[in-house]
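Supplementary Methods, section 5.1.

A reviewer requested that the exact input to the structure prediction be made available. We therefore reproduce it here, unchanged from the version used in the analyses.
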Amino acid sequence: MKKLSEAELEIMHILWSHKNSLTSNQILNELSETRNWKLASVMTVLARMAEKGAVNCDRSTRTNFYSALVSEQEYKLAESETFLERLYDKSAKNLIACLYQGKRMSKENIQELREYLDSLEEKQ
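The structure derived from this sequence is encoded token-by-token as follows.
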């Protein structure tokens, strides 16, 4: 899947947060909290997202309904892999070391990570 822009990702978050497909007007209503867009802008972005394979447009009725073709988990995994590859030589350890050295990890974050890694070991 191709990388999504910030605006596209914002729309994906809206789609992911709903179980049912949404109309462009419903998406516009939710976007109105953060963006001052017109319906034409939403439609343009949705068309671009459909070309990227991110959303499906159901045109079987008079009203178009949009749904995500990629789950939030799938997208996050793909983006995480790309991020680690580009910046940290595919190493999660290098990412954590950078965050720690930059004082971006609190003791609570470290403890949470330690507990999570321990739980993974227990499952194996």
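The longest strand covers residues 55-58. These observations are discussed further in the main text.
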